[in-house]
Structure formats: structure tokens, C-alpha cells
Design the sequence.
């Protein structure tokens, strides 16, 4: 298992971590198997989405902010970041991907993203590669 460290700069943003994840797979020397990318944070998630056009990330964050507003009169969590916890649960803490031929298998336009919902912060994701 390896840890990738991330410095986020905004309250909500998507950080492309595809390159660092690919490097972990290369170091592991696994030719065929599975890869798990996991966020140990209750206000940060991991997803796979398009990494070619940054407007996709902007649109996703914009939609999520509209679906789960930052402030809501019914939120009771004292830290004021209930939206961040909800968004993390909706997006999810991890992704499982295929490793084949010694590489992470992604579609042509896909990338792996850490989703920051309560930044800016110092974050990390844990990457585990299993296989032969």
C-alpha cells in the first residue's frame, strides 16, 4: 500500500491524481490484478471521470453544490460542513480499477480524481495493488 499526498486549494475541487496512481502501479510491478484508490477522509471522495475537458469537473461540482447546498437550515452538524459529509457519501470513498499489462486500464478520456469537499486541506489517498 502507498499513500499519495494532496494539497487542495479550494473548498470544493477535483484534483487529477491519475499520474501518481499510475506511478504506484508501476512501482508495484503487478502485471494483472486490481487497484483500489481509497480516501480516508469523511469530507473527501474518489471518482473516475473525464479528465480532458476541465468543464466536466466544473459542471459536476456545480451540480453537486446545487443538489446539496453548503448551508441548509436543517443541517445540525456543529462544524458547518454537513454538505461535505453528504457529498462524500454520494460520490464514495473509493474506486476499484483493473490493472492489465502492468498499467491501470482507463477509458480514453478517463482520469482518477480526488474530490475535495471541505478544503483547502492537506489530504491523502491510499492506493493498494493486488495481483500477479
Sequence:
Amino acid at each position: 500500500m502507498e499513500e499519495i499526498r494532496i494539497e487542495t486549494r479550494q473548498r470544493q475541487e477535483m484534483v487529477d491524481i491519475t499520474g501518481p496512481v499510475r506511478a504506484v502501479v508501476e512501482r508495484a510491478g503487478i502485471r494483472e490484478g486490481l487497484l483500489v484508490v481509497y480516501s480516508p477522509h469523511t469530507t473527501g471522495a474518489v471518482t473516475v471521470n473525464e479528465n480532458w475537458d476541465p468543464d466536466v469537473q466544473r459542471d459536476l461540482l456545480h451540480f453537486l453544490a446545487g443538489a446539496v447546498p453548503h448551508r441548509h437550515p436543517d443541517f445540525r452538524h456543529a462544524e458547518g460542513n454537513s454538505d461535505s459529509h453528504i457529498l462524500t457519501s454520494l460520490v464514495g470513498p473509493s474506486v476499484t480499477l483493473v490493472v492489465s499489462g502492468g498499467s491501470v486500464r482507463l477509458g480514453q478520456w478517463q482520469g482518477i480524481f480526488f474530490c475535495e469537499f471541505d478544503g483547502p486541506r492537506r489530504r491523502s489517498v491510499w492506493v493498494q495493488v493486488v495481483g500477479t
In short: Residues 2-131 form a domain with the Jelly Rolls fold (CATH 2.60.120.460). The first helix runs from residue 18 to 28.
